[in-house]
Every structure is written in structure tokens, then in C-alpha cells.
Amino acid sequence: MSSGFINTIRTLSPTMKYILVTGGVISGVGKGVIASSFGTLLNCCGIDVTSIKIDPYINIDAGTFSPYEHGEVYVLDDGGEVDLDLGNYERFLDISLCRDNNITTGKIYKQVIEKERRGDYLGKTVQVVPHITDAIQEWVEKVAQRPVKGDKKPQVCIVELGGTIGDIEGMPFVEAFRQFQFRVKRENFCVAHVSLVPMPRATGEPKTKPTQSSVRELRGLGLSPDLIVCRSERPIGIEVKDKISNFCHVAPEQVICIPDLSSIYHVPLQMESNGVLNFLKERLQLDFVDPKQTMQSWRELAYRVDNTRGEVKISLVGKYTKLEDSYASVSKSLQHAALAAGFKLSLKFIEACHLERDFKKENQLLYYQAWQELCDSNGVVVPGGFGSRGMEGKIRACQWCRENKKPFLGICLGMQAAVIEFARNIIGFEGANTTEIDPNVAHPLVIDMPEHHPGIMGGTMRLGKRTTVFKDNCTSTIKKLYGSPKSVDERHRHRYEINPKYVPQLEEAGLKFVGTDEEATRMEIVELKDHPYYVGVQYHPEYLSRPLKPSPPFMGLILASVGKLKGYLNKGCRLSPKEMSDNSSDEEVVAISKPNKQLTNGTHKHCSNGATSSSNDEYEK
Fold first, then answer.
1. Does 542 qualify as catalytic in the annotation?
2. Annotated catalytic residue: which of 356, 392, 497, 542?
3. Residue 257: active-site member
């Protein structure tokens, strides 16, 4: 054999390994967290991992979904609007994915139809098998090779198939992977089936029949699970695992139980203790190091979740609060920051429209409950959103935080609400609003961006990672939180922006725009003078927050809410372990942040019921 041929063999890339994660019995059983946990374990072993999420719906992407339909829309660096599970992958694995890491039925059919229109199939009848199934396999193979951390190609690709086995819309994908297992060889392909083991109250014992039926259907479609991950309310006994093993044609050690845990950060640890790594090492013929040392930071994170004593109360004022997944990334970002600061997060979701004056006439009880929760909080976040519903409630929340010096973070529409409120009540622009709500408003503080309003809804916003430049010589809290760089890169998702025409008047009145885009035409960050923490950002910092690397704007909100921001900034944005365990606050901020504090400001007196009483009361006008 020639030396040239030997050298060629040595330079070949290692074979890609695939882990397919499927679900049974019900949707929402936790496939995303399980898939992310597989990646976390392999990452800790020195294995580079990428992830793909398959959503069998016909939509091209998640961009036009209501949050009530499918949870939040997660945005990637390249502007891809994708399923929220990709947020789990990025947070758990600390990687950056692209829009092609989210496969939908719509994308696959669109690609195949375009090829048919070009004549690429040479006049053949285009069918689900082989044309759709081949397109799925080629897409997976191509995306699996893309680097997600630096320039190094991943070694393992984790593919999560959305929905449940048996769904009619998922059938082409199941068939594609039935073929795919032979295409890539058995030693490079592993199936993990996540199934619910219910425990009816009437009997008090776990029932395995739904899992048996789900596995039987999966096997009937040509895929045999190598691991069965049983989700349950409580741990299941060895006899239940043996029963599932016996009826589902797997060894007992291939049945893993993941009961409901105190936090998702315990899931990788639970899987490790069940021997998942040893199984993957043998089944996929992987060569990796002992993860005990690299798992330590993850163990410490899980320990902090359970053992942090101090509590910080944050209110989230939004319009999709009936489904907490609507604000999944914001919730996770607040938790990351709270844990880093040494506090347990207590997050209250407040329906924005419940804070509005008109709503008081409809339901006084809900109105006063909403204001009570807002008053009891240590800090407030107003996240992004669209449309007119709840806008006046968000504006009132901004006003309350500004007047009472309550720590506040406004994101995207939340920033715009803060600017509108300031223009109305400080500058005196009565009726100031956004053209999204009133196109003919006299004072359009927020206007649309014509290039992002082409007349179609999907994928036309200002999307993805873009640069925000800090103004020269500005004294900015948010700039210090980022480490005082000249610029930062954050992800965007919006069609409307602050009207630059009003910026000089706003700044003269005390609302400072400390960050802009690279052309200095679009306002990106706003801060209020003489306030503990009143910050608005046009971008979405929640998309880049990580469990071990909290997002700076969220870190600032949490620290201001517990009275530690000033000391944190003075020490170069560092907290010692002693400070994290010490829940005392700076005196001046404690005086501001105490819940239910009776404050008097001119003719305003804030009551414990969350409303405001006065003979000349601004809130009740």
C-alpha cells in the first residue's frame, strides 16, 4: 500500500455519529431537555456535539406563530426564527446554531418542489419515497457537518423528532430515518425513545402499557429503540423497568427513569448516574475522557438551584402570560442571573392588560391583584411583543418603575413602551404612541422600518445578530455590565424603532440613548439618569444568556433588585463567594426595593393594593 494512500486515510474526518430522540404517548414529555442532556454529557467528555430539531408542521419556520400556539419564537445568529427547543440546545451546549438546524415539513417540501420546477428530477414522478425521504436525509447529513463552536466539525449530531410516534405528519421523517440507519451504519446510529409512564391516582402505581404501545408502533415503523427514557412524576421501581425491558425488547440497563426533578439542570446528572455515558461509549464506539472533572461546574449549578436561600421577586409584565413557555428564554435568563448573584428567583407573570385603567371597570379584583403583585416585586421586566393588546398596561408599569425607582428592564417593545411613557409624562407629548398601534398619531415616538415591512409576515423583520455601538465617553451602567467594550453583538427581532427625530428632546429631559447601531441612526440602548436601574434595549439579550454565563442586562436587573449592583460595578463586575451567600443589600437600594413601602411623591401616595390614591392622581386620570 502506498504511503500517499495511508496519509489520505489518516486525514479523513471521523465518522459522524447520530442520536435520534423520539417521543411517545404525549407531546411535551421533555424530549428537548433529554436531547440537550445527551449533548451536555458528551460535551463534558470532550466530544463536540451539534443538534437538529425536526418540526413536522407545514410552516416554513416558527416566525409567524402566536406564542400561545408553540411557545416562544427563538432567534438565532443568522436570523432564523425557530422552535424554542433550539434555545435549550444552545444554552445547555453553549453553541451557536443556524436556521438549517431546524427542519420543518414546509422547508423540505419547498426544497423538493423547487427542484421539481427546475427539472432536476428529469420528468420523474415526485413522491414521498424516495424524493422527500432522500431530501430529509441529505439535509441532516449536510447540517451535521457544520461547525457550531469555532471551526471544528462536530463528532455527534443529536436529532430530535418533534411530536409523537404515530402522528401522520411525522411519518415521512420516521421513514427517512428508517432508511438513514442503514445509510450511516448501525454503529453510527442510536435511537432514544422518550415515553410517559403515567401514575393514575386511582391505582397509585405506574402503568407501562402506553410505553409498550408506543415502542411497538415505533418498531413496526422500522426503528428499534436502543434506550427507553421513561418520564414519570415519581421514580419507578426496578420491577417496572424489568417489565418495560421484557415487553419492549431492550436490556434492563437500557431503560432509564427520569422523574420530575427540582430543576432541568439535574437531568444530565440523573442520566449520568443511570449509566448513559457508558452505554453511548459502547453503542456508538466513542472514545472520550472521564467527565467527572468537567461535570463539576454542572453539579455546582444544580446544587445552587436547590440550596440558594435568598429570594428575589421579579414581575414580568407581558401579554402572553397564560403560557409560561411564551417567555421561556426571558425566564431562563432571569434564573441564570439570580443564581449567579446567589439568589433564588421568584418570577410572577402579570397580564399587562390587567394593569390598565379600563380593565378596572371590567374586573376590579384582577386589577388590584395585578397591581399588588407589581408592588411586591423587587424588580420588573417588560419583554418584547406585538400588537396593541396590553400596551397601555406596559406603559403604566414603566411609569410606576420610573416614579418609584424600581429596577426595570425593557426589552424590544418594553423599551419602546418606556420611551413612550417618558415622552407623555415628562416631556408632555400627550397621546404619544407607536405607529404600530396608531398610524396617524400626532407624536410618533416609535415608527416602522420600511425595509422590514415588505407586505409579507414571515422572515421580514430586522432579525439576527447585529452590532450595537456604545457612544464615546458615555457613563453607562449597561456598558460597565458588559465590561466597557466599544460595541456588543446581540440578536434582534423587530419591525419598529425609536423615532430619531425625538431623541434630542428625550435626552435633554434625562433619558439617555447610550447605544446605537453602527450607522448611529437606530437607538439600541436607553438609560434613565438618577435611577438605580432603568434600562431599555431594542435587542433581545435573553437569546445569548447561558446557565454559567448570564446576560449582562439581566445580571444588572437582578443585582439592582437585591441592592448589589453598585458594589458589583465597583469591583469590576465580580462577586465573591461570600457576597453570593450574603443576602444583605446596600442601604440606599433596600430603601427603594422594599415591597409595599409607602412612598409620597408630591400628590402621589402608593397604596398596598397596588393602585395609587390622590385627589390629583396621575394613575387614575
1. yes
2. 542
3. no
